[in-house]
Structures are given as C-alpha cells and as structure tokens.
Amino acid sequence: MAQPLVFAFEELLPWKTHAQGVYGGAYTEIVRELARRMDLPLEFRPCPLKRCLYMMESGEADIIIGVRDTPERLRYLHFLKTPYRQHSSDKVFYVQKEHGVDIHSYADLAKQRIGVTFGAAYFQPFDLDRRLLKEEVPTMEANFRKLALGRLDTVVVPEDQGEAQVARLALRGLVAKAPYRVADPSPRSIGISKKSAHAGKLERFEDAMAAMARDGTLAALFKRHYYEAFNVPPDSVQIK
C-alpha cells in the first residue's frame, strides 16, 4: 500500500470542517480529489495553525491548504503553480440592515465598534491600527450574533466566510454589507512540504492540479460544497 498523504488540517469554516469524525468543506474535498488522482491514501492530521505549519516544515505532514504563501513559508513549502482560487476573497464590513452605520471608506471606521476574530489578520493598515475600537471574540459566529443584537456596529470578515455565516445563521434580513471593501488579488495555492516523502512526485501533483482546474472539477467542488452546502446565493460572492 502506498505511503499516505498526510493532510495538516486546521478547521476553517466554511472551507474545512470537522464534525463527528467527518471531514468536509470545499478545500477538504479539493485535497481529497487531488490525493485520489495521485492514487494516494489521505490521512488527516488535525492541528492548530501554528502546529500545522511546524509539521509542514519538519516533513511530519505533506500537504496543506488555506494558508498564504509568505516569504517565511516559502522556505519549507512548495506552492503548486495552479491555484485552487485565482484571488482571495475581499474583506468586507457587515452592518445592521436597519439603522446600520454608513461605511464608505476607511475613515468611516473611526469610533465604530468593530468585531474581529481573535488571531485573524485582515489587511493593512487595519491590523496594526490601534486607534480603532476592535473587539475580539474566539469565533466569527459570535461576532455576527453580537452585530444582530446591536452590540457591535460592524463586523469585518472575508466575504466568502461572511456570506456562509449569514446564510447559516439566517441573518440575511438583519445584516448587510457596507459599500466599503478591500480587495485581495493574491491567488491561493496548495502547499507541499519540501521535506515530504512525496516531494519527488511534485510534477505529478502539478499535472493533477492543472487537470482539476481544466476539466471543471474545482468549479464543481465549490458549487457543491460551498454554494449548495451553505445555501449561499451565487450572486452574493464570487469564488474564482
């Protein structure tokens, strides 16, 4: 039997989910399909992000998805040339639909109570701006519940994750996106550990990923495991 492809798995709703022993989400299904095309058994290794990255650096894990290709990570990760997404999701600000604040520019964030998720990075200068009234909570869901109750003025979030939360929590009639948004044109690609036992198969990984984009598999997985699974209206956010 072939040596397993070890997946460093950090839960990231709605893209990577884990409930009652079942691993799901569109990103998970992309890795699962890639492993199938490589004819490799897939082994899930749940871990917090810091631990996942350490495992990738040491070669304890082979593959990861949903992380940026920073200069530091490029030391120990090879990011496949074919991205699973052509660009990252815009960062958007949700407000109450009725009586919500007006946010048309960065300056409009001043003096607003802004919900953020603990440990998350959004964009600069926002992340380092200590003048803003940012309230941290452990989960994105908690932020949206606080916004619906009027305990926050706005919630900042990647648009794709925000739309899934709004649909899941049935908040479509209570919250809306403000006009101000910040684009993130950087692509997202799967990372392979440079110390992976499968590093010698890199060309095969590249070919398989290119084929998944070319034959429509990626689009189909996003349709089934994002839009349909979370009841997200296709016109509310575009995944490219």
Low-confidence stretches: none
Strand order of the largest sheet: 9-8-10-7-11
Mean pLDDT equals: 94
What count of helical segments does DSSP give? 6
Provide the structure class. Answer: alpha/beta
In what range is the share of β-strand residues? Answer: 15-25%
Largest sheet: 5 strands, mixed
Give the termini distance in whole angstroms: 36 Å
Helix content: 25-40%
Round the Cα radius of gyration to an integer and report it: 19 Å
Order of helices and strands: EEEHEHEEEEEHEHEEHH
Structure report:
By secondary structure, the chain is of the alpha/beta class. The chain is 28% helix and 22% strand. The strands form 4 sheets. It has a 5-stranded mixed sheet with strand order 9-8-10-7-11, covered by helices on one side. α1 (26-37) packs antiparallel against α6 (217-228). The longest helix is centred in the last third of the chain and has 13 residues, at 202-214. The protein is elongated and about 60 Å long.
